[in-house]
Amino acid sequence: MKQFVIERDVPGAGKLTAADLQAISQTSCAVVDSLGKPYEWLHTYVTDDKLFCVHEAESEDVIREHASKGNFPVTNIFEVKTIIGPQTATAV
Predict the structure, then answer these.
(1) Cβ neighbours of 17 (radius 10 Å)
(2) Domain containing 35 — which CATH number?
(3) CA angle 70, 46, 32 (to 5 degrees)
(4) Phi then psi for 21, rounded to 5 degrees?
(5) Which of 5, 15, 40, 71 could make an SS bond with 56 (beta carbons 3.0 to 4.6 A apart)?
(6) Per-residue exposure over 34-64, b if at least 16 CB sit within 10 Å of its own CB, e if not
């Protein structure tokens, strides 16, 4: 599967309550279960006015299907080509 970062404009996202975030998470998980396709939601970064979600799926179309069924906004979708970090600096 490919990995994607989904940018979602959600004004006030950083002020969502634990209950709000739980409800969003439950909806996302239910949609993933209903897709009937390989799909995994890995995690989401919550900022003041955006969510940055990291998902694995076969295609951008499946990402959009998840968003549509869950009524989640999509601002941009980026396919991850590789991941780097501090360990990359010392890799041989």
Answers:
(1) 8
(2) 3.30.70.3090
(3) 30
(4) -65, -35
(5) 40
(6) eeeeebebeebebeeebbbbebbbeeeebbe
Taking the C-alpha atoms of residue 78 and residue 31, their distance in angstroms, rounded to an integer, is: 20
Residue 20: phi and psi, rounded to 5, are -60, -45
Distances (CA, A) of 50 to 45, 81, 87: 8, 22, 28
> Which pTM does this prediction carry?
0.91
Burial of 13 (0-12, 13-18, 19+ CB in 10 A): buried
Nearest in space to 59 (alpha carbons), one of 19, 8, 4: 4
Chain Cα centroid distance, residue 29:
11
For the stretch 56-82, pLDDT in tens is: 999 999 999 999 999 999 999 999 999
Instruction: Tell me the two tokens of residue 69.
Output: 């069924």
Domain that holds residue 84: 2-89
